[in-house]
Amino acid sequence: MSIFIDASSRVIVQGMTGKEGRKHTQRMIMSGTRIVGGVTPGKGGGSVLFEEDPVPVFDSVAEAREATGANVSVVFVPPKFAKAAVMDAIDAGMELVVVITEGIPVHDSVEFVAAAKASGRTRIIGPNCPGLISPGLSNVGIIPATITGHGRIGLVSKSGTLTYQMMYELRDHGFSTAVGIGGDPVVGTMHIDVLQAFEDDPDTDVIVMIGEIGGDAEERAAAYIREHITKPVVGYVAGFTAPPGKTMGHAGAIITGSAGTAQAKKEALEAAGVRVGETPSQTAALVRDVIAGLRAKA
């Protein structure tokens, strides 16, 4: 099993006819994702060839969903058009919308995240995220499919780069699903949402949570883990050397005073029983220790 996506997921690509959309559609298809259509307003009725197989293009998500039975959309649309694209997917009743686009204005993200929650049926992952992958089943976004295999580790991360590194470091064990939630101040899916999904997934044995400086998402996740998560969790917080008051890479990664520091997040997680590494490699080593312990008990 996996969370949010699986081999039956039927995916449409918003912005498939653009350079980035076309490139990553090809990569997703090659990794086994069922791409059933693309959406570019004004280009409906056409198609794009991938490995000699035409993928139809539609003018709207509603048209694409009706024609293909799609239940997942991935958004590769420039920032100024991203809100309209995501709202189109929400209005069409898509179950999952993965927003890869970086640089979306925060007020636009606030609006479409609120609309998705109000719909009661659409989950948004992102924006400014690498997407998610269940190795061997489906890959929605830009995560490289060749860096790891299928296994029983669940991964939730704010950082795309650290997602890839952790997947590679633990490639011999493999992952049930890896989810990049995005590093913007406003995102549609939080650590807590993914932690609970992994808790409920019978094929996930251990959870890896990667956070970063700024905000209080990791502290809230720590409180949630203490009360609701029974599976072992290993954590890593990026940004131990970041200077206060300076944005580091992600728009949400900024320290204000003593709030949001890597040390404060580490302490909160450890108080909840999470083993926290101070480097990605050390974190991977902790995961290996946890897996060895689980196997010894089996």
Comma- or semicolon-separated keywords:
single chain; 298 residues; alpha/beta; Rossmann fold; 2 domains; seven-stranded mixed β-sheet; 14 strands; globular
The H/E string reads EHEEEHEHEHEEEEHEHEHEHEH
Please mark out the parts with pLDDT under 50 across 5 or more consecutive residues, or reply none: 251-257
Number of helical regions: 9
Q: State the CATH topology of the largest domain.
A: Rossmann fold
Provide the domain count: 2
| Global structural class | alpha/beta
Summarize model confidence as the mean pLDDT. Answer: 93
CATH class of the largest domain equals Alpha Beta
Q: In CATH terms, what is the architecture of the largest domain?
A: 3-Layer(aba) Sandwich
What features would you describe in this structure?
- The protein is of the alpha/beta class and 298 residues long.
- It folds into 2 domains: 10-125, Rossmann fold; 147-297, Rossmann fold, CATH 3.40.50.
- Helix content is 36%, strand content 23%.
- The chain contains 9 helices and 14 strands.
- It has a 7-stranded mixed β-sheet, with helices on both faces. Strands 9-8-11-10-12-13-14 form a 7-stranded mixed β-sheet, sandwiched between helices.
- α8 (262-271) links the parallel β13 (233-238) and β14 (275-277).
- α7 (217-228) packs parallel to α8.
- The protein is globular, with a radius of gyration of 19 Å.
